[in-house]
Amino acid sequence: MADKTSSTLAPRLRSYIGPLLAVTLLTIQAGFLLFVRPGASLSTYSNVVSVVCFLVLLLATGIVVLNAVQSRQIIRLFWSLDEALRESEERYRYLVNSSNDWVWETNADGVYTYAGPQCREILGYEPSELIGKKRFDLMPPEEAHRVAAIFDAITADRKVFRGLENTNLRRDGRLVVLETNGSPVIDNQGRLVGYRGMDRDITDRKHAENVIRESEQRFLLVANTAPVLIWMSGTDKLRNYFNRPWLEFTGRSLEAELGNGWANGVHQEDLKRCLDTYSQASDRREPFRMEYRLRARDGKYRWLVDIGVPRFNPNGSFAGYIGSCIDITDQKRTEEALASMGRRLIEAHEEERTWIARELHDDINQQIALLAIELERWSQHPSKSAVDLRDHIHHARERLSDIARDIQALSHRLHSSKLEYLGIVAAANSFCRELSGQQKVQVEFNSADMPRNVPKEISLCLFRVLQEALQNAVKHSGARHFHVELRGTSEEICLTVSDPGVGFDWHGAMNRQGLGLISMRERLQLVNGEFSIDSNPGRGTTICARVPLGTEEIRLRMAG
Fold it and tell me: Which of 121, 197, 424, 524 has the fewest Cβ atoms nearer than 10 Å?
């Protein structure tokens, strides 16, 4: 364009040179004749006319010179504009050729009139192949129908549009997702000439978004079906997500739980410790574990164990926390029960030791001491009669036999050798006879259909239950007649101990955590057995213990 402008203005410049030289020479000659030539004499009128003519010639010279200078400036201006235009076009071509986006132009009918070279990389077509085609020619039919409706609305309003996502078919048949931006081109008469814009390939971005979306959907599916309470928080320590089990557990809405709303359900005694643990761990970006009570839907507090771990973005920056909670109320109760059982076992052991010590000291030791005194007295005053000596020896032998029986009974209470070698039926029968003789009561024992080989742990469990139940009945029922029955089937063994005595409130006894009843129940639980009591004040008592045979879940190999 600069060359064309220069060739147009050069003749105009040359046209000024001739007149400029002529006017300049005439002006110099006139000045010489009027003011320089010696001896010149002119009239006053002539002098005035000459001066005026000189001034006119001088003015004409100035005008010619001024026009020449202005023409030169105009030429320079056009040259500079042409240079700026050329640089602008070069920059535009550089941007078009170096950009990853595809630049295009269409006419008012949507037909491509220009296609940038990036269409080769994006669509696999040469720019020349796209000229004369419409955008919708490169789309699947359903997508073309959808996008055409959008473009019709845009062109009707001559709108600028941005971020229009559309799916196109490459030459090789692969689908690509483009993000299209465009602006209308309007001529001097205000008519829509076409559109000019660019397309960006966002296929990889859309794929990544779909992967993230599917990952989020899988997370939500797992989170909402998992049997745990899950929460998430941001960098501000405020919780921004709770899964469905959490909301079902608390009976509150998501909006009520967000932020610090969840803390309203924490037990007041646990709240400060809970918030301090969470805040300090968040400041250090460390995992944490805490236990606290949270109010459930029914208004009761239940124990939760809450484990939280920090989350980080792909660039390593801190994103917040994610945590999961498990209801450990039953575990807490079990721990408390175990702790209580531990105390009761220690108490039972101490009571057993006390009873053994008392039996040894108050009964057996006293009998031995009394026998020793009698022997000492006989040694100091020996009898001269053979009959008296035989009586003394017979009396001493009976006392020793009584002591031996008492020691044997004490031994059988602690450990029955008959149970180990002869089985549960023989051991139970022997115990009933011994207790009947010791306590001067009548104990009737019956057995039926008992299997030959009863597992050791079941035999020991039933024997201990028999001991506890029968001794309690003798001690507290007030009755003098008792009935014990062992009955077996192919599936279970049933032990029944009954008496017609005063009976008792067994519900109250269980609530008072009596050691005897709890001990029997827990022994049976160890072999998956069942324990039941039928008793009311004044109506006697029946205790029944049932143990299934063939179980594979016996958790204690020795019930004793």
Answer: 121
